[in-house]
Amino acid sequence: MSTALGHPLFYWIWGKLLPQPYESLVLRLIMSVLGLSLLVFPQFSATPPSRASAATFTGIFWLTLPLFFSWMYFCNSGNTVWLASLGAMFLIYYQLTDWRIATLGSVSGVALAWVAFIAFGPPAADMPMTQVLTNIVVLAFSWFMGLVLGISSSNLRREQLNYTLGTMGIMAHELRTPLATMSLIGDAVRTETGEGGEASAQKLDKLGARLNTLVRNMNHQIDMQIANARLMRLPVHKETISAADLVRQAVSDYPYRSTRERECVQVLVRRDFLFEGSHALFAQVIDNLLKNALRSLAAATTASHPGDLLVEVGTLHSRGRIVVNDRGVGIDPALQPRIFEPFFSTDRGTGHGLGLAFCQRVVQGASGTIRVKSEPARGAIFTIELPLLA
Protein backbone atom coordinates (compact mmCIF):
# COMPACT_ATOMS: atom_id res chain seq x y z
CA MET A 1 0.00 0.00 0.00
CA SER A 2 2.81 2.43 0.86
CA THR A 3 4.45 1.77 -2.51
CA ALA A 4 1.20 2.10 -4.47
CA LEU A 5 0.21 5.41 -2.84
CA GLY A 6 3.63 6.76 -1.86
CA HIS A 7 5.05 7.22 -5.34
CA PRO A 8 2.25 9.48 -6.65
CA LEU A 9 2.42 11.45 -3.40
CA PHE A 10 6.17 11.96 -3.58
CA TYR A 11 5.99 12.83 -7.26
CA TRP A 12 3.74 15.71 -6.25
CA ILE A 13 6.06 16.70 -3.37
CA TRP A 14 9.39 16.49 -5.26
CA GLY A 15 7.98 17.49 -8.62
CA LYS A 16 5.57 20.30 -7.69
CA LEU A 17 5.71 21.33 -4.04
CA LEU A 18 9.49 21.13 -3.45
CA PRO A 19 10.93 20.63 -6.95
CA GLN A 20 14.06 18.50 -7.32
CA PRO A 21 16.41 18.53 -10.34
CA TYR A 22 14.99 15.27 -11.69
CA GLU A 23 11.56 13.66 -11.35
CA SER A 24 9.73 11.21 -13.63
CA LEU A 25 5.99 10.67 -13.62
CA VAL A 26 6.36 7.57 -15.82
CA LEU A 27 8.77 5.88 -13.40
CA ARG A 28 6.63 6.84 -10.41
CA LEU A 29 3.53 5.31 -12.03
CA ILE A 30 5.43 2.11 -12.89
CA MET A 31 6.61 1.76 -9.29
CA SER A 32 3.08 2.44 -8.05
CA VAL A 33 1.60 -0.24 -10.34
CA LEU A 34 4.19 -2.77 -9.16
CA GLY A 35 3.28 -2.04 -5.54
CA LEU A 36 -0.42 -2.27 -6.36
CA SER A 37 0.10 -5.70 -7.95
CA LEU A 38 1.21 -7.06 -4.57
CA LEU A 39 -2.24 -6.16 -3.21
CA VAL A 40 -4.34 -7.19 -6.21
CA PHE A 41 -3.03 -10.66 -7.02
CA PRO A 42 -3.91 -13.24 -4.30
CA GLN A 43 -0.87 -15.46 -4.92
CA PHE A 44 1.35 -12.78 -3.35
CA SER A 45 -0.57 -12.98 -0.05
CA ALA A 46 -0.60 -16.80 0.14
CA THR A 47 1.28 -18.30 3.09
CA PRO A 48 3.61 -19.99 2.45
CA PRO A 49 4.01 -18.50 -1.06
CA SER A 50 4.89 -20.57 -4.11
CA ARG A 51 8.42 -20.32 -5.44
CA ALA A 52 7.25 -18.32 -8.46
CA SER A 53 5.32 -15.79 -6.38
CA ALA A 54 8.19 -15.50 -3.87
CA ALA A 55 10.64 -14.81 -6.69
CA THR A 56 8.29 -12.25 -8.24
CA PHE A 57 7.74 -10.64 -4.84
CA THR A 58 11.51 -10.36 -4.34
CA GLY A 59 11.97 -8.95 -7.83
CA ILE A 60 9.34 -6.24 -7.31
CA PHE A 61 10.97 -5.15 -4.07
CA TRP A 62 14.34 -5.04 -5.82
CA LEU A 63 12.97 -2.86 -8.63
CA THR A 64 11.05 -0.46 -6.38
CA LEU A 65 13.73 -0.06 -3.72
CA PRO A 66 17.49 -0.38 -4.48
CA LEU A 67 17.25 -0.01 -8.27
CA PHE A 68 14.75 2.88 -8.37
CA PHE A 69 16.16 4.79 -5.39
CA SER A 70 19.75 4.46 -6.67
CA TRP A 71 18.67 5.69 -10.12
CA MET A 72 16.97 8.73 -8.60
CA TYR A 73 20.01 9.38 -6.40
CA PHE A 74 22.38 9.49 -9.39
CA CYS A 75 19.97 11.53 -11.54
CA ASN A 76 19.68 14.12 -8.76
CA SER A 77 23.47 14.39 -8.34
CA GLY A 78 23.34 12.84 -4.86
CA ASN A 79 21.67 15.87 -3.29
CA THR A 80 20.55 15.91 0.33
CA VAL A 81 16.99 14.76 -0.44
CA TRP A 82 18.08 11.65 -2.27
CA LEU A 83 21.03 11.02 0.02
CA ALA A 84 18.56 10.75 2.90
CA SER A 85 16.09 8.78 0.77
CA LEU A 86 18.72 6.24 -0.31
CA GLY A 87 19.94 5.82 3.26
CA ALA A 88 16.39 5.24 4.48
CA MET A 89 15.85 2.78 1.63
CA PHE A 90 18.67 0.55 2.90
CA LEU A 91 17.06 0.35 6.35
CA ILE A 92 13.61 -0.37 4.88
CA TYR A 93 14.91 -2.98 2.44
CA TYR A 94 16.67 -4.97 5.14
CA GLN A 95 13.51 -4.99 7.26
CA LEU A 96 11.28 -6.16 4.42
CA THR A 97 13.31 -9.14 3.28
CA ASP A 98 16.01 -11.56 4.35
CA TRP A 99 19.36 -9.89 5.03
CA ARG A 100 21.17 -12.09 2.49
CA ILE A 101 18.71 -11.18 -0.28
CA ALA A 102 18.86 -7.53 0.80
CA THR A 103 22.68 -7.51 0.65
CA LEU A 104 22.76 -9.00 -2.84
CA GLY A 105 19.89 -6.76 -3.96
CA SER A 106 21.54 -3.59 -2.61
CA VAL A 107 24.84 -4.22 -4.34
CA SER A 108 23.29 -5.26 -7.66
CA GLY A 109 20.68 -2.48 -7.57
CA VAL A 110 23.21 0.31 -7.00
CA ALA A 111 25.59 -1.13 -9.61
CA LEU A 112 22.92 -1.52 -12.28
CA ALA A 113 21.49 1.95 -11.57
CA TRP A 114 24.96 3.46 -12.00
CA VAL A 115 25.50 1.65 -15.31
CA ALA A 116 22.03 2.72 -16.52
CA PHE A 117 22.67 6.31 -15.46
CA ILE A 118 25.98 6.46 -17.35
CA ALA A 119 24.33 4.99 -20.46
CA PHE A 120 20.87 6.58 -20.44
CA GLY A 121 20.70 9.07 -17.58
CA PRO A 122 19.68 12.69 -17.94
CA PRO A 123 22.27 15.50 -17.75
CA ALA A 124 23.23 15.98 -14.10
CA ALA A 125 25.69 18.21 -12.30
CA ASP A 126 28.97 16.60 -11.35
CA MET A 127 29.42 15.91 -7.64
CA PRO A 128 32.50 17.46 -6.02
CA MET A 129 34.92 14.95 -4.55
CA THR A 130 34.11 16.19 -1.03
CA GLN A 131 30.43 15.46 -1.59
CA VAL A 132 31.22 12.05 -3.09
CA LEU A 133 33.30 11.04 -0.07
CA THR A 134 30.78 12.46 2.40
CA ASN A 135 27.91 10.61 0.71
CA ILE A 136 29.87 7.36 0.63
CA VAL A 137 30.43 7.56 4.40
CA VAL A 138 26.75 8.34 5.10
CA LEU A 139 25.43 5.62 2.76
CA ALA A 140 27.94 3.06 4.03
CA PHE A 141 26.79 3.75 7.58
CA SER A 142 23.11 3.39 6.57
CA TRP A 143 23.83 0.17 4.68
CA PHE A 144 25.84 -1.28 7.56
CA MET A 145 23.13 -0.47 10.11
CA GLY A 146 20.54 -2.05 7.84
CA LEU A 147 22.69 -5.18 7.64
CA VAL A 148 23.16 -5.31 11.42
CA LEU A 149 19.45 -4.83 12.07
CA GLY A 150 18.56 -7.46 9.46
CA ILE A 151 20.89 -10.04 11.01
CA SER A 152 19.67 -9.17 14.51
CA SER A 153 16.03 -9.58 13.48
CA SER A 154 16.83 -12.93 11.87
CA ASN A 155 18.60 -14.14 15.02
CA LEU A 156 15.73 -12.93 17.21
CA ARG A 157 13.16 -14.82 15.12
CA ARG A 158 15.33 -17.93 15.30
CA GLU A 159 15.63 -17.66 19.08
CA GLN A 160 11.87 -17.19 19.44
CA LEU A 161 11.24 -20.27 17.33
CA ASN A 162 13.73 -22.32 19.33
CA TYR A 163 12.10 -21.15 22.57
CA THR A 164 8.66 -22.10 21.27
CA LEU A 165 9.84 -25.54 20.20
CA GLY A 166 11.57 -26.04 23.53
CA THR A 167 8.38 -25.12 25.36
CA MET A 168 6.43 -27.59 23.25
CA GLY A 169 8.96 -30.28 24.09
CA ILE A 170 8.51 -29.64 27.81
CA MET A 171 4.72 -29.73 27.44
CA ALA A 172 4.92 -32.97 25.48
CA HIS A 173 7.09 -34.52 28.18
CA GLU A 174 4.63 -33.48 30.90
CA LEU A 175 1.75 -34.96 28.90
CA ARG A 176 3.52 -38.26 28.32
CA THR A 177 3.94 -38.91 32.04
CA PRO A 178 0.20 -39.28 32.82
CA LEU A 179 -0.26 -41.07 29.51
CA ALA A 180 2.29 -43.68 30.56
CA THR A 181 0.35 -44.12 33.80
CA MET A 182 -2.89 -44.55 31.86
CA SER A 183 -1.25 -47.18 29.69
CA LEU A 184 -0.10 -49.12 32.76
CA ILE A 185 -3.63 -48.94 34.18
CA GLY A 186 -4.99 -50.31 30.92
CA ASP A 187 -2.54 -53.20 31.04
CA ALA A 188 -3.49 -53.90 34.67
CA VAL A 189 -7.20 -53.87 33.85
CA ARG A 190 -6.72 -56.36 31.04
CA THR A 191 -4.57 -58.56 33.30
CA GLU A 192 -7.32 -58.72 35.95
CA THR A 193 -10.05 -59.73 33.49
CA GLY A 194 -9.68 -63.43 34.32
CA GLU A 195 -10.78 -63.02 37.96
CA GLY A 196 -14.43 -62.07 37.24
CA GLY A 197 -17.12 -63.74 35.20
CA GLU A 198 -16.90 -64.10 31.47
CA ALA A 199 -19.16 -61.09 30.74
CA SER A 200 -17.30 -58.93 33.21
CA ALA A 201 -13.97 -60.08 31.80
CA GLN A 202 -15.00 -59.15 28.28
CA LYS A 203 -16.10 -55.68 29.36
CA LEU A 204 -12.85 -55.09 31.27
CA ASP A 205 -10.81 -56.35 28.35
CA LYS A 206 -12.58 -53.96 25.98
CA LEU A 207 -12.11 -51.06 28.40
CA GLY A 208 -8.41 -51.84 28.73
CA ALA A 209 -8.01 -52.07 24.96
CA ARG A 210 -9.82 -48.75 24.46
CA LEU A 211 -7.64 -47.11 27.11
CA ASN A 212 -4.46 -48.34 25.41
CA THR A 213 -5.75 -47.17 22.03
CA LEU A 214 -6.54 -43.75 23.49
CA VAL A 215 -3.03 -43.45 24.91
CA ARG A 216 -1.53 -44.47 21.58
CA ASN A 217 -3.61 -41.91 19.72
CA MET A 218 -2.70 -39.12 22.15
CA ASN A 219 1.02 -39.91 21.87
CA HIS A 220 0.61 -39.93 18.12
CA GLN A 221 -1.02 -36.50 18.18
CA ILE A 222 1.78 -35.13 20.37
CA ASP A 223 4.40 -36.40 17.92
CA MET A 224 2.45 -34.99 14.98
CA GLN A 225 2.00 -31.52 16.43
CA ILE A 226 5.66 -31.27 17.42
CA ALA A 227 6.69 -32.32 13.92
CA ASN A 228 4.27 -29.86 12.33
CA ALA A 229 5.55 -27.05 14.55
CA ARG A 230 9.01 -27.51 13.02
CA LEU A 231 7.64 -25.92 9.87
CA MET A 232 10.54 -23.50 9.49
CA ARG A 233 13.27 -25.92 10.65
CA LEU A 234 13.03 -28.77 8.19
CA PRO A 235 16.27 -30.75 7.79
CA VAL A 236 17.94 -30.56 4.38
CA HIS A 237 19.38 -34.08 4.21
CA LYS A 238 17.96 -36.30 1.47
CA GLU A 239 17.73 -40.02 0.90
CA THR A 240 16.33 -42.31 -1.76
CA ILE A 241 12.69 -43.17 -0.99
CA SER A 242 10.43 -45.81 -2.48
CA ALA A 243 6.96 -44.25 -2.76
CA ALA A 244 5.21 -47.62 -2.41
CA ASP A 245 7.18 -48.59 0.71
CA LEU A 246 6.61 -45.14 2.20
CA VAL A 247 2.85 -45.29 1.73
CA ARG A 248 2.49 -48.92 2.89
CA GLN A 249 4.50 -48.23 6.05
CA ALA A 250 2.59 -45.02 6.84
CA VAL A 251 -0.78 -46.75 6.36
CA SER A 252 0.33 -49.73 8.44
CA ASP A 253 1.72 -47.64 11.32
CA TYR A 254 -1.20 -45.22 11.59
CA PRO A 255 -2.99 -45.51 15.00
CA TYR A 256 -6.52 -46.26 13.82
CA ARG A 257 -9.33 -45.80 16.32
CA SER A 258 -11.22 -48.91 15.23
CA THR A 259 -11.06 -51.91 12.94
CA ARG A 260 -13.68 -50.31 10.67
CA GLU A 261 -11.49 -47.24 10.30
CA ARG A 262 -8.53 -49.40 9.32
CA GLU A 263 -10.55 -51.39 6.83
CA CYS A 264 -11.74 -48.31 4.96
CA VAL A 265 -8.13 -47.49 3.95
CA GLN A 266 -6.79 -49.19 0.84
CA VAL A 267 -3.47 -48.83 -0.97
CA LEU A 268 -3.19 -49.21 -4.74
CA VAL A 269 0.30 -49.27 -6.25
CA ARG A 270 0.00 -48.81 -9.98
CA ARG A 271 3.72 -48.24 -10.39
CA ASP A 272 6.33 -47.65 -7.74
CA PHE A 273 8.86 -44.86 -8.15
CA LEU A 274 11.92 -43.51 -6.36
CA PHE A 275 12.47 -39.92 -5.30
CA GLU A 276 14.81 -37.92 -3.07
CA GLY A 277 13.72 -36.50 0.27
CA SER A 278 13.55 -37.13 3.99
CA HIS A 279 11.77 -40.42 4.71
CA ALA A 280 10.73 -39.30 8.19
CA LEU A 281 9.26 -36.04 6.91
CA PHE A 282 7.39 -37.65 4.03
CA ALA A 283 6.02 -40.28 6.39
CA GLN A 284 4.67 -37.37 8.43
CA VAL A 285 3.14 -35.89 5.25
CA ILE A 286 1.24 -39.12 4.49
CA ASP A 287 0.27 -39.33 8.16
CA ASN A 288 -1.19 -35.80 8.07
CA LEU A 289 -3.17 -36.54 4.92
CA LEU A 290 -4.51 -39.80 6.39
CA LYS A 291 -5.56 -38.02 9.57
CA ASN A 292 -7.43 -35.32 7.67
CA ALA A 293 -9.11 -37.86 5.37
CA LEU A 294 -10.22 -40.10 8.25
CA ARG A 295 -11.56 -37.07 10.12
CA SER A 296 -13.51 -36.10 7.01
CA LEU A 297 -14.93 -39.63 6.70
CA ALA A 298 -15.92 -39.63 10.37
CA ALA A 299 -17.86 -36.39 9.82
CA ALA A 300 -19.80 -37.86 6.88
CA THR A 301 -23.40 -38.92 7.40
CA THR A 302 -22.87 -42.45 6.09
CA ALA A 303 -20.76 -45.19 7.64
CA SER A 304 -17.37 -45.74 6.03
CA HIS A 305 -16.73 -48.74 3.79
CA PRO A 306 -13.56 -50.36 2.44
CA GLY A 307 -12.06 -48.15 -0.22
CA ASP A 308 -13.57 -44.91 1.07
CA LEU A 309 -9.99 -43.77 1.60
CA LEU A 310 -7.78 -44.80 -1.31
CA VAL A 311 -4.06 -44.04 -1.48
CA GLU A 312 -2.63 -44.49 -4.98
CA VAL A 313 1.01 -44.60 -6.06
CA GLY A 314 1.93 -44.20 -9.72
CA THR A 315 3.61 -42.08 -12.39
CA LEU A 316 2.32 -39.66 -15.00
CA HIS A 317 4.27 -37.64 -17.56
CA SER A 318 7.66 -38.44 -16.00
CA ARG A 319 6.49 -37.39 -12.53
CA GLY A 320 5.77 -39.57 -9.53
CA ARG A 321 2.33 -39.24 -7.98
CA ILE A 322 0.91 -40.05 -4.55
CA VAL A 323 -2.85 -39.48 -4.46
CA VAL A 324 -4.94 -39.55 -1.27
CA ASN A 325 -8.61 -39.80 -2.23
CA ASP A 326 -11.39 -39.84 0.37
CA ARG A 327 -15.19 -39.84 0.18
CA GLY A 328 -15.70 -37.62 3.18
CA VAL A 329 -17.46 -34.30 3.66
CA GLY A 330 -15.15 -32.43 1.27
CA ILE A 331 -13.79 -28.89 1.51
CA ASP A 332 -15.68 -25.68 0.82
CA PRO A 333 -14.38 -24.16 -2.47
CA ALA A 334 -14.03 -20.77 -0.74
CA LEU A 335 -11.60 -22.29 1.77
CA GLN A 336 -9.48 -24.32 -0.64
CA PRO A 337 -7.11 -21.47 -1.63
CA ARG A 338 -6.16 -21.04 2.04
CA ILE A 339 -5.83 -24.60 3.35
CA PHE A 340 -2.04 -24.61 2.93
CA GLU A 341 -1.62 -21.43 4.99
CA PRO A 342 -0.05 -21.89 8.46
CA PHE A 343 -2.57 -21.64 11.31
CA PHE A 344 -5.56 -21.81 8.94
CA SER A 345 -7.78 -24.80 9.64
CA THR A 346 -11.11 -25.93 8.24
CA ASP A 347 -11.68 -27.77 11.51
CA ARG A 348 -11.90 -24.85 13.91
CA GLY A 349 -12.67 -27.12 16.85
CA THR A 350 -9.52 -29.26 16.89
CA GLY A 351 -7.33 -28.24 13.99
CA HIS A 352 -4.20 -26.18 14.67
CA GLY A 353 -3.71 -25.32 11.00
CA LEU A 354 -0.09 -26.48 10.65
CA GLY A 355 -0.53 -29.93 9.09
CA LEU A 356 -1.09 -28.99 5.45
CA ALA A 357 1.37 -26.10 5.61
CA PHE A 358 3.93 -28.61 6.86
CA CYS A 359 3.03 -30.98 4.01
CA GLN A 360 3.46 -28.27 1.40
CA ARG A 361 6.81 -27.17 2.81
CA VAL A 362 8.16 -30.76 2.82
CA VAL A 363 6.92 -31.49 -0.71
CA GLN A 364 8.29 -28.22 -2.09
CA GLY A 365 11.60 -28.98 -0.40
CA ALA A 366 11.81 -32.07 -2.63
CA SER A 367 11.01 -29.94 -5.72
CA GLY A 368 7.48 -31.33 -5.80
CA THR A 369 3.96 -29.93 -5.67
CA ILE A 370 0.84 -30.70 -3.69
CA ARG A 371 -2.67 -29.65 -4.67
CA VAL A 372 -6.26 -30.41 -3.72
CA LYS A 373 -9.45 -30.99 -5.65
CA SER A 374 -12.64 -31.18 -3.63
CA GLU A 375 -16.37 -30.60 -3.63
CA PRO A 376 -18.62 -30.45 -0.57
CA ALA A 377 -20.14 -33.85 0.31
CA ARG A 378 -18.05 -35.52 -2.42
CA GLY A 379 -14.73 -35.93 -0.67
CA ALA A 380 -11.28 -34.56 -1.43
CA ILE A 381 -8.33 -35.60 -3.57
CA PHE A 382 -4.84 -34.52 -2.50
CA THR A 383 -2.23 -35.09 -5.21
CA ILE A 384 1.51 -35.01 -4.55
CA GLU A 385 3.76 -34.86 -7.61
CA LEU A 386 7.49 -35.45 -7.30
CA PRO A 387 10.44 -35.58 -9.70
CA LEU A 388 11.57 -39.13 -10.42
CA LEU A 389 15.01 -40.16 -9.29
CA ALA A 390 17.11 -40.73 -12.39
TrEMBL record:
Transmembrane regions listed in the UniProt entry: 25-42, 54-74, 80-96, 101-120, 132-151
Membrane found in the keyword field: yes
Key words of the record: ATP-binding, Kinase, Membrane, Nucleotide-binding, Phosphoprotein, Transferase, Transmembrane, Transmembrane helix, Two-component regulatory system
Any GO MF annotation of the entry: kinase activity
SMART domains: HATPase_c (SM00387)
Domain Histidine kinase: residue ranges: 170-390
InterPro entries found in the cross-reference section: BphY/WalK/GraS-like (IPR050351), HATPase_C_sf (IPR036890), HATPase_dom (IPR003594), His_kinase_dom (IPR005467), HisK_dim/P_dom (IPR003661), Sig_transdc_His_kin-like_C (IPR004358)
EC number: 2.7.13.3
Catalytic activities: ATP + protein L-histidine = ADP + protein N-phospho-L-histidine
Keyword Transferase: yes
Name of protein: histidine kinase
Native source organism of the sequence: Caenimonas terrae
